[in-house]
Amino acid sequence: MLVDMAKHNNEVARQRRDAVTDFVKAVTDVDELTDSKFATALGKVMRGQRQYDQATVADITTMVKAMMDAGLLTELDNFSVKQILTKVKDSTGKNDITAEANKLIDIMLKHQLRRGKRAFEQQLKVKGMRQDSRGVVVQKIKDY
Prior knowledge:
The chain is mainly α. It has helices spanning 2-28, 35-69, 78-90, 98-124; strands spanning 127-131, 137-141. Helix 2 runs antiparallel to helix 3 (78-90), helix 2 (35-69) packs parallel to helix 4 (98-124) and helix 3 runs antiparallel to helix 4 (98-124).
């Protein structure tokens, strides 16, 4: 998933750079610069930037949705949700979103480790039974 996302991000970034290069060529050719040529070139650059921004956010959002669908982000605390939303927002306009994707994976892994630790601690709290001096069965949590 990360490799596909990085390839897609690089392709969209290349298209954006090409649009900027075309704009610079159109603007630097002052002898033939008209308002319509300028507007056309500027519109192309603006469309390229918008497409790039949408693509980066879409890639990161798709990654988060896949993690949620797989159940990897259940029972998140507020802090983790805010971290995820920040990473989605931070991915907008970046040339390389690999860092944001890696941070999302780190958030997911830390969350999974916390869930595993809680489950393990719950399993360690095994109740045992014994009889007291009066013959009454008493339950007690055993600590290991």
